[in-house]
Amino acid sequence: MQHKLLLLEDDISLVDGLKYSLTRNGFTIEIARTVEEVMILLPKIDTFDLLIFDVTLPDGNGFDLCQKIRKAGKQIPIIFLTASDEEVNIIRGLDSGGDDYITKPFRLGELCSRIHALLRRANTLSQRKNSVLECGDISIDLLGCRVLLHGILLDLTSAEYRLVCLLVRNSNQVMTRNCILNELWDSTGDFVDDNTLSVYVRRLREKIEDEPSNPKHLITVRGFGYQWREVSE
User: What is the pTM of this model?
Assistant: First the structure.
C-alpha cells in the first residue's frame, strides 16, 4: 500500500528534490505552495496519511495551519520543516499540534525514517481505537478480552465473553439460537448445546442486569432467539 503525503513547501528547488526522492521511496506526493492551497484541501485532508509543512510561507506559517487542522478534529501526523532549530520554535511547533520537527538542511534518510515512524504510530493508534467495542453503557476491550459495564470490570467466563461479544457486535438485531450456537462452538471444539446456551444467557443476565428477571440489555425474542439492546448510562 502506497502512503499519500501532502508537502507544503514554497522552495521550488527543495520541492522538486523531495518529490523525486519520496516518490522513489514508495510514497505518493501532492504538493501545495501556500497555506491557502492547503485550506482548500481541508475538506479532503483525511485522504492523506501524513502532512509535511514548511514553517515560513508566503501567506502564513505552518504552526497556525496545524492548529486549524487540529481544531477541525483531524489527527493526521504532521512534520514541520524549518530552518530554525531554536528551542522556542520546537516547542511552538509541538504545542500547535505537530508530531515531529526536522531542521533544514536534513538528510532524506532521516526524513524517511521519521515519516515511517509516525505512520507506524498512527497505524497502532488506529488499531487500538478499533479494538474497543462500545455500545451504550457497555465497553469491550477486544485486545484485553475485558468487558466493562458503567466502567466496572465484569467477571466473565470465556464462553460468557464470547457470547456478549457476539450479541454486542449485532446489537439491536435478533440473533437466532442456532446462529449463536454455531458461533459459540469455538476452534477448540468446545460444543455448546441448546440447554447450555440457556444457562449462559441466565448467568450473563445475572452479571449485567440490575433486574435479571426484567432484563434491559439481553432480551429474549420468543420463538427466535435473543437481542442485545443498547442502553445508555
Answer: 0.57
List the beta strands (DSSP E) in 65-168. Answer: 78-82, 100-103, 132-135, 138-141, 146-149, 152-153
For residue 52, CA distances in Å to 22, 58, 225 come to 12, 16, 53
Q: How far apart are CA 48 and CA 50, in angstroms?
A: 6
Q: Which candidate, 98, 30, 34, places its Cα nearest to that of 63?
A: 98
Sole residue written with cell 528547488: 13
Its sign, for the CA torsion 81, 87, 92, 93, is positive
Please report the domains of the chain, with CATH numbers, ordered by start residue.
Answer: 3-127 (3.40.50.2300), 132-228 (1.10.10.10)
Residue 78: strand, helix, or coil: strand
Residue 2 has what DSSP assignment?
P
Structural contact between residues 87 and 44, judged by C-beta atoms closer than 8 angstroms? no
Residue type, 149: L
Question: Does 188 score more than 50 pLDDT?
Answer: no
Q: Is the pLDDT of residue 129 over 80?
A: no
C-alpha cell at 24: 522513489
**Residue 130 amino acid letter:** N
